[in-house]
Amino acid sequence: MTVSAGGAAAGAARRNEDAAMCPYRLVLEHVTSRWGVLVLIELLEGPHRFSELRRAVGRVSGRGVSEKMLAQTLQTLERDGLVHRDAKPVIPPRVDYSLTGLGREAAEQVRVLARWTQDRMADVEQARQAYDEARRANDVAREA
Asked: pLDDT for 64-77, tens place per residue?
């Protein structure tokens, strides 16, 4: 699939309009994104170097996060004021990531939601099964 420069520019303009109309929605998307949630929760444990964080997020998710996606997620969370990037001028370079006060607040809220999801997963699965069975029964009734 090819995206034209005009299409990419139109998409960026649309995202900027969305941000202007509903600025908190973008922050919510960043905090609750697939990798954002895992990064925030992992950083609650303390500062991590990039590679440590990548391994930890991979263990939790069951799938590895690419370097590119982790870097983008960290940059986005840093821009939102949730993550602090501490680059130490040593050789080899050392960069640590930690939560800011704002980030800690967000991470604690996300962790509560993640725990609730884990604790209530059986109920969600039961609701899904009931929904699917009702839909199948409805489809069969319509076909008859």
From this structure: 899 999 999 999 99
